[in-house]
Amino acid sequence: MTPDAALSSSAMQRALDPASTSTLRAMVLCAVGAIVGLSIAGYGLFTAAGTSTRTVPPESVAMVNQRPILRSDFIAQTESELGKTFAEATRDERLKVLDEMVREELLVQRSLELDFAETDQDSRNALVTAVTQQITVGIVTSEPDEQQLMNFYETHKEQFSSEGRMQVVDLVLAGENMEVGRAAANALRSGTSVEDVMAGFGLTQPVRHDEDYYFAVKYRLGDVLFAQVEHLSAGAVNEPVRLGDAIHIVQVVSNTRPVPLAYPIARAQVATDFKMFEHERSLNATLTFLRGRSTILIADDYAADYKP
């Protein structure tokens, strides 16, 4: 047998050998697998979120630095600006709105680059307002049913009453002579006229108080004096109170106290207060969640007293 024939015969035997065939098959499959894997990786690399591409997804009308302007937003803004349906808008009108949205996106992205959320108070206020509205949008847009309102009314009856009205005379004694103050108060209680008491004890009336709602009287008198006279009847006089460098003696001229309102009369106010209550409840629940996942450090000079 010639050398060439022997070599050819040896090669044929190796090709027909089962072990050699299995090795060759494994090598081919590995090569195919590598090619497929690289293809998938390349596709993922060039189509992943945040990857720069030259195409606009079907659900978007534009991409600005890989941030989409959605067609749904484009249609809504077009109809809102033009006051007609999107189908009725001309090509030029649509292009004008599209350019406005592109310009807006550019400016928003620039504000993020400048970190306005941290450095500009107006931007922070707008963000807080937007997030608050997002949290409570369901409460604002939905209407509570009658049973919810009635339950709220029953558990908050003290909130629903008529406005109390009151008229008082606030007399002022300069100095700190409490004995004179008590004598003046007793004279008023015994029926002596305000004019005679003022003249006899040297009192003044710096401010004249006409009849007004409780909240207005409280504002003018201050919390301390109002708390003393709120429940007094007409003609009654408080115990003299030293405020600052003077003593105040208040006589009640009239006092129409608040009376509870029945549910049918108070219903409109119940509905308003219910929504406010739910608004605060939802907002507080969200803040509790955010605090729970956050690390908040308070400076030593405030840490002991800070209570969220």
UniProtKB/TrEMBL annotation:
Keyword Transmembrane helix annotated: yes
Catalytic activity: [protein]-peptidylproline (omega=180) = [protein]-peptidylproline (omega=0)
Positions in coiled-coil regions: none
Transmembrane residue ranges: 26-46
UniProt domain PpiC: residue ranges: 144-258
Gene Ontology terms for molecular function: peptidyl-prolyl cis-trans isomerase activity
UniProt enzyme class: isomerase
The protein's Enzyme Commission number: 5.2.1.8
Pfam families listed in its UniProt record: Rotamase_2
Record keywords: Isomerase, Membrane, Rotamase, Signal, Transmembrane, Transmembrane helix
Highest taxon of the lineage: Bacteria
Similarity comment text for this entry: Belongs to the PpiC/parvulin rotamase family.
Protein name per Swiss-Prot or TrEMBL: peptidylprolyl isomerase
Annotated source species: Povalibacter uvarum
Lineage, opening ranks: Bacteria, Pseudomonadati, Pseudomonadota, Gammaproteobacteria, Steroidobacterales
